[in-house]
Write a structure and sequence with these properties.
Elements: H1 6-45, H2 55-60, H3 62-65, H4 71-102, H5 125-135, E1 151-157, E2 163-167, E3 172-175, H6 182-193, E4 198-202, H7 209-218, E5 223-226, E6 238-239, H8 249-263, H9 272-290, H10 297-303, H11 309-316, H12 320-330, H13 334-347, H14 354-357, E7 367-368, H15 371-374, E8 380-384, H16 391-413, E9 422-427, H17 429-432, H18 438-445, E10 450-456, H19 459-477, E11 480-483, H20 490-500, E12 502-513, E13 516-527, H21 531-535, E14 541-546, E15 552-555, H22 565-587, H23 591-597
Parallel strand pairs: 3-10, 3-11, 4-8, 4-9, 5-8, 6-7, 9-10
Antiparallel strand pairs: 1-2, 1-15, 11-14, 12-13, 14-15
Helix pairs in contact: 1-4, 6-7, 7-22, 8-9, 8-16, 9-10, 9-11, 9-13, 11-12, 18-19
C-alpha cells in the first residue's frame, strides 16, 4: 500500500507556518492598536478611565473594556482607527523597503557586480577635491573648495547620492545616442560649472547647449560665436585668422589637413589625389600666411595655377624647397596638375562662399578672435556648423585645434598646466570637428589642464573619421569613457560587456525524494551586464569606465532637474525665440525686394 510522501507533509507544515506568521503579523499590532485607540477615545470623550493592558480583549470584546463608550466612538477607536494606522504603517514600510532596495531616493536598483563607491574612490568627492588642490595652485590654500572647481560632474553612482566626477587632468570620450542625455546631462552641466574658458562645437543652436548656456556664460566672460552657416543666425561680431598658425610648414599642413578630413573619410585620405590636393593647399596656405594675405587669396591661386605669386613669396621667405615642390606640380603633366588642383579646389570650396569666408577674413569694426588671449580668460567660444559642412566644418575644426594648441603653449609658459583649466566640449565631433590627430592629442591634453570631452553617437562613427586604429587609440587614451543608452552595435556592446566582466552567482536547487526534500547551493560565473542589457540601458543612466577602476553605473543629472533650472529654461527659451525671429526676419521679403522683383 503506497505511503504518503514525507515531502508532502513537509510542504503542508511550511504553508501552515506561513499562514500563522501572516495572521500573527496582522493580529498582534492590530490588537495593540485597538487597546491604544480605545483608551485614547475614552480619554478624549471623558467616557470612563483607561483600562489595563489587555490587547486581545480590546480586539475581541471592546464593549467589556469600555462599556461607557458609545457604539460609534467604540467602532472608531477600536476598529477604524487601528485599521487605518496599520494600513498606513504597512504602506510606509513598503515604501521604505523599496527605497532601500532601489538604493534610496527612488533610484534604480544597483546592479550586482558593478562598482561600489570604494571601487571608484578616485572619482569620489574626497579624492577629487584633494587632487584639485595639487593640480591647481590657486586652490592650494583655499579653506573650502566648491565642487565645480574640483572636477566635472558625470552623475551619481547608481542607487546612491554619491557624486562621480572626472578630475581636471582627465580626458573623456562619451558615446551616447541621440536623446540619451549627452547634451542635457553632460555638455550643458559641464559648461555651466566650468571655472575657466569653454570651447563648444555643435551642429545645433535652438533648444541646445548654445541657448541653454549663453546667458550664464555671458555673466562670467565674453561669449564668442562663430556661425559661418548661420545655424543660430548670429550677427558677425568676430573674425578669426586661420593663417595665423600657418606660418610654418607644420602649421600650414595642419590647416590643410582639416580641409582634407572635412571632405573625405579616413579610408580615402591616403590615396594619391587626396594627399596631392592636401599638399598643394598646405603650400599655398604657407605662402598666404607668410605674406600676411587673406585666406581667400588661396582660391585665386588655385583658379590660376600659372600665377607665380606664391612661388615668389615662398622663395623670398626662405622656403626654396617648398617652392620647388609647388613649381614641380605646376609644371608637371597638365592632366595630373589639373586633377590635383581640382581636388584642392573641392576641399576649399567653402571659401568661395562670401558669407562663410567673411568669418575668417579681416572685417572692419569687427573684433578679431585671438586664441592666445582666449585661453587665459573665462570666455566662451561657440563653434557652430552643419553636419557635412565640408569646408565650413574644416574651419570649425581648425579653430578648435588652434585654441587647444594655444592652450598647450600657454600651459608650457605657466608651469605646465592651465589654472583654471580649459574645457573643450567637442559635441558631434565626427560631423563638425574632424581633427585628424585628436587621438594623439589626447595623450597629453589632460596633463596640460586642457579637458576635452569628445561626444560621439556611436563607436563606428569615430572609426569612420579616425579609422579603426585611430578610434581604438582615442578610446585607449581616454581616462574616462561614458556610455549612454541607445548602443545598437552588437560588437561594441559585447566588447563593453567583456570589459565589465563576470561575477559569481549563487544557484540554489531543490530536489524531492522519498526521504524528503534536499537543497544544494552552487556557484557559477555570469556576465555582470550582458550585451542585450547594455543595449537596453534605460534613458537617464550611463556606464562609466575609468582607468584602473571597475565599471560603474551612473544616474545622470540633467540640468533641468537641478537648482536654478527655471531661470536657465527661461533664458534658453528667450534665446531660441531670438534665433527664430532672426531667421524669420532674414527670409521675409522686404518692400525693396518686391520692387526689385517687379
Amino acid at each position: 500500500m503506497p505511503q504518503p510522501s514525507t515531502s508532502s507533509n513537509s510542504d503542508g507544515y511550511d504553508i501552515a507556518f506561513r499562514v500563522l506568521g501572516i495572521v500573527l503579523a496582522i493580529a498582534v499590532p492590530l490588537a495593540n492598536l485597538a487597546w491604544l485607540g480605545g483608551n485614547l477615545t475614552a480619554w478624549a470623550t471623558d467616557a470612563g478611565t483607561s483600562t489595563s493592558y489587555q490587547p486581545v480583549q480590546a480586539l475581541l470584546h471592546p464593549d467589556q473594556l469600555w462599556p461607557h463608550l458609545g457604539e460609534t466612538s467604540r467602532l472608531l477607536g477600536t476598529r477604524i482607527l487601528p485599521a487605518a494606522v496599520l494600513l498606513a504603517l504597512a504602506a510606509i514600510s513598503a515604501a521604505l523597503y523599496k527605497r532601500h532596495k532601489d538604493g534610496g531616493g527612488g533610484r534604480r536598483k544597483r546592479i550586482d557586480g558593478m562598482a561600489k563607491s570604494k571601487d571608484i574612490a578616485p572619482l569620489m568627492s574626497k579624492a577629487v577635491t584633494a587632487k584639485a588642490r595639487s593640480l591647481r595652485p590657486s586652490l592650494k590654500d583655499a579653506k573650502r573648495i566648491d565642487a565645480q572647481d574640483t572636477g566635472i560632474l558625470l552623475g551619481n553612482l547608481q542607487g546612491t547620492r554619491h557624486e562621480v566626477r572626472m578630475g581636471y587632468e582627465d580626458v573623456a570620450v562619451a558615446i551616447m545616442a541621440p536623446r540619451s542625455g549627452k547634451t542635457t546631462s553632460l555638455a550643458i552641466p559641464s559648461i555651466l560649472a566650468a571655472p575657466g574658458p569653454v570651447l563648444l562645437t555643435s551642429n545645433k543652436a535652438a533648444g541646445d547647449a548654445f541657448t541653454a548656456t549663453y546667458d550664464a556664460r555671458a555673466r562670467v566672460g565674453q561669449v564668442w560665436s562663430m556661425d559661418p552657416q548661420q545655424i543660430a543666425h548670429t550677427a558677425r561680431e568676430m573674425w578669426w585668422n586661420p593663417l595665423a598658425d600657418a606660418k610654418t610648414l607644420d602649421g600650414a599642413g595642419r590647416l590643410a589637413g582639416h580641409f582634407l578630413a572635412a571632405s573625405v573619410d579616413a579610408s580615402q585620405q591616403g590615396d594619391f589625389w587626396s594627399k596631392a590636393g592636401s599638399n598643394i593647399l598646405s603650400q599655398l596656405f604657407l605662402a598666404a600666411a607668410l605674406d600676411e594675405r587673406a585666406i581667400t587669396d588661396v582660391m585665386s591661386w588655385l583658379a590660376f595655377p600659372a600665377d607665380r605669386t606664391p612661388l615668389d613669396i615662398l622663395r623670398d621667405h626662405g622656403f626654396a624647397a617648398v617652392a620647388a615642390q609647388l613649381k614641380g606640380t605646376v609644371e608637371g603633366p597638365p592632366e595630373t596638375r589639373d586633377g590635383i588642383y581640382e581636388t584642392a579646389r573641392q576641399y576649399a570650396a567653402a571659401l568661395l562662399n562670401t558669407e562663410i569666408s567673411a568669418w575668417v577674413t579681416p572685417q572692419k569694426d569687427v573684433r578679431e578672435f585671438k586664441p592666445a588671449e582666449f585661453v587665459t580668460s573665462t570666455d566662451t567660444l561657440f563653434l557652430l556648423s552643419k553636419d557635412g559642412g565640408g569646408g565650413a566644418s574644416a574651419l570649425i575644426a581648425a579653430c578648435a585645434d588652434s585654441v587647444m594648441r594655444a592652450a598647450t603653449a600657454q600651459a608650457e609658459r605657466t608651469g605646465g598646466r592651465l589654472d583654471p583649466p580649459m574645457l573643450a566640449i567637442l559635441d558631434e565631433a565626427a560631423n563638425v570637428c574632424k581633427i585628424s590627430d585628436l587621438p594623439d592629442l589626447y595623450s597629453h591634453l589632460g596633463s596640460r589642464g586642457i579637458i576635452p570631452i569628445t561626444i560621439l553617437q556611436s563607436y563606428r562613427q569615430g572609426q569612420k573619421v579616425w579609422s579603426d586604429a585611430g578610434m581604438d587609440a582615442l578610446w585607449s587614451a581616454s581616462t574616462v569613457k561614458v556610455i549612454g543608452s541607445g548602443i545598437d552595435d552588437p560588437d561594441f556592446a559585447d566588447k563593453l560587456s567583456r570589459l565589465i566582466g563576470d561575477h559569481d552567482v549563487e544557484t540554489t536547487s531543490t530536489s524531492h525524494s522519498e526521504s524528503g526534500k534536499s537543497t544544494s547551493v552552487s556557484m557559477r560565473q555570469e556576465r555582470i551586464l550582458p550585451a542585450d542589457a547594455i543595449r537596453a540601458l534605460p534613458k537617464g543612466t550611463a556606464l562609466c569606465f575609468a582607468t584602473g577602476m571597475r565599471a560603474a553605473m551612473l544616474d545622470l543629472r540633467p540640468w533641468y532637474l537641478e537648482p536654478g533650472a527655471e531661470e536657465l529654461s527661461a533664458a534658453s527659451a528667450r534665446a531660441s525665440k531670438a534665433i527664430t525671429a532672426r531667421a524669420v526676419a532674414k527670409h521675409t521679403p522686404t518692400r525693396t525686394d518686391f520692387r526689385k522683383a517687379a
